Fold each of these.
Amino acid sequence: MAPVKVTFTINGITTEALEGSFLLASLKANKIDVPTLCHHKDLVPNGTCRLCVVEVTDRGKTKTVTSCNFPVKEGMVVSTEAPSVVRNRKVLAEMYLGRWPNVPAVKEVAKKVGVTGSRFSSDLTDENPKACILCGRCVRACETFIQEKIIDFAGRGIKRHMGMPFGEVDPHCVGCTSCAYVCPTGAIEVIDDMNHPVDPLLIRNHGMRVNAEMANLDPSQCRMREVGTANIVEVMDAYDLLPVCNYKFGSHKDTPKIDSKVLKEQYFTQGHADQCWHGCSMACAKAVDGYILKTGPYQGDAVCVDGPEYETSAGGSNMGCFDPDFIVEFNFYCDTYGLDTISSATTIAFVMECFEAGIIDTTITGGKVLNFGATDEALELLHEMARGEGFGVDVGQGIRFLKEKWARELGADAAFLHDIGMEAKGLEYSEYVSKESLAQQAGYTMAVKGPQHDEAWLIFMDMVNNQIPSFEDKAEALYYFPLFRTWFGLMGLCKIVWNDVSPADNKKHPPQEAAKIPEHVHNYWKFFEGMTGIPLDEKKMLDQSARVHNLQKLMTLMLGYGTRQSDVPPYRAMGPVTEEEYLSRQERYDGQLTANLGLDPASMDLPAKMSALRTFRYEQYDKVLDAAYKRRGWTREGVPTLERLTELGIDLPELVEIAKKYQ
Ligand code: SF4
Ligand code: SF4
Ligand code: FES
């Protein structure tokens, strides 16, 4: 629905504003200056100080209102200079001045309304220039940005003051400094010496921007505060990107059993900011209290589970397990055992497919019937992996180990195992289906540490938004995003505040720029500058990161995973390995054969169609790899050129020696 405008007059001048907006904004828009103390642009107004009073006549009734929280109305008549409001303001300013005579914000307001002295000095007069004037901004900041009331009013009457419960520092305070930022007097002092930043104010200013966006935009964007990263379970399912049964499929009818709605309504009991990044108010972490474990060494105990987040739920769907209790329990034991939920889930999903394909049987699994969806058996296997017992000894060593062992000892089809074994460089894949995104296939597999989305998550840019259609566009994304992500990882900064909430006007940028979220990248630079005193821009940031990224690449090379063959994904990450998979998306794949290769699927049998699609997808992948290597300054073999090492200033003899062999 289009926003409705209302028309009214201010001091005899006709003006318009959006219905529901507050009058103070209209006064400012008309360059009419009324004094304020409790108002702040990032906070919901609540009319505490009463200095912004104006006179409003609406449908024959005249009254004095606080303009900061008075919604505009059609036909109303506003006067900011009516004798009663002028008198009101003056008396109020005099009272403020009587109690807090040296606070600059109070003196400024008094001056604005023509008050130079006060008749209200008393025992309560506080000479401190940084005295608290009880405006309540800090309380609203804590409520708005942290969803807490850690700082609040205490005491009554003349004893009213601000504080934390029982006058002690509340451990739930995340140190976001929002309260200090909005305080008009400096009454809340921030001790900035924890990490000795060069310019703490610069950091606070940008931190406040982040806090304000999180508070105002997150509810209508990713809902991180409400449900954490689990918000994308249903989104991925809707886009056919949620891994199901070892990445065979991208959605499932039972996804609603494990989606964010279920987790929020039936499981999550905690969701406040947990200080994983000091001062962050995003509160993306969620937790489940009092979960009674059904298995394992703590069976019967009521425990607190840190999660689940998206990857844990998606790990469940990848094992074909759409039982939220299983996901919570799997989450708890992975954390408790120190096992990575992604690697564990992806490995067990691979084991399940091998079991269903008859590659292994119960003689190998220690009697466990490990079909997809076998929740009890999956948990038993997880416990065995942690204890280093039975079948868990092998499974705990990951997919690469299992592929090689089963091909060698069981005579299994090595090519098939390679196709369905979702690992690269020895690391298991993260929980996204990348079949329809060429850029993501490369993003995962080219990642120097192995296929995790820490370096590049380009599925939406590539597949959903079609923002990087050409090979060169994809190569550019595969240059910029891994370097940006590597950079903030190196700085110990979190990714969530980069793109899980976007500025409201982010779409003003052209699509490829918009994907970078330029204003938020700028926040990271300012944070860096505030800490180090060194200003940053895109080139400097990318160069800093490229030095480390190329060094990592050379180290990967030393480990034997640094050449082109290690950057090629298993085919399951690129397309349909089995007939069942092809048939599940037959219409799409048939359409691609026609559109891209000019083939007539109706005249081809299934193996022929699958073979043609596979050849096409490998060719496409080769092209994207060539383009990305070129953009990164790497050879066709995927190794940094000597010129690139020199350009980055890392042409140290030891490094040149490693790279030289592959030029
Ligand atoms: S620093 Fe942040 S969390 Fe702590 S009291 Fe202030 S607003 Fe609340
Ligand atoms: S501490 Fe600052 S923001 Fe809080 S009530 Fe006092 S003056 Fe206002
Ligand atoms: S600014 Fe409106 S009441 Fe304080």
Amino acid sequence: MVSFHPDAKFLTDFAAGNLPLSEAICVAAHLEFCSKCRSHVQQLSDLGAQLMVRLEPQLTAADAADSDERQGFEQLMQRIDAGDTGMTVTPAPAEPARVSSANPLGLPRVVQKLAADGVQSLKWGQFGKSLRIAPIRIDKSSRETALYDIKAGGRMPEHEHRGEEITVLLKGSFSDAEGKYVKGDFVVRHAGERHQPTATLDTDCICLVSLEQPVKPSSFWYRLMEPFVQYRLSGLGN
Ligand SMILES: [Zn+2]
């Protein structure tokens, strides 16, 4: 069961179309697992639509809400295609992510969109025995977006954050000193926080990660992590 959710500011900015694309994708992925946040975003979108009607009397509230509901998620998909960081789109709540023969991992549609030929087709880099990372270029923002695949029972190197990190669990689960996280959880870490995520033993863990700044590896792991940092930078064309 999902226990960690985007805070009110994330949801409000998402509903208003004010979140930069990398973070909007993380919120959209969470919404596909979380009916509670989907309904919050829907309420915020409805409020926004009513406000728009008061500002633009020619549009009825129903028209505005219908339009948002029908177009919002598709518009987010179009933003991904266009690498657009525009601030004017209001993405509507997405439907739940479901496991099917076409989507055996049950990945959110927004992630399927980022990896149209399947997640295995992405450019994965291997770091140590347990960690693979596939950088995803989605816009020209300063954030890094990537999929992380941690082998069952595997540990990531301990690292410290220079900026905010958002992690959305897409498959499996992991734990760190703060707690245990399961599929759908939206976990935010802030600058200066250190942690060492460890995947649970029974299954691989796949996460969508949005990083404000590259992480600073602790000295013990520096030699291991240096190629990892270089890889991410080259993958993002910086
Ligand atoms: Zn939620």
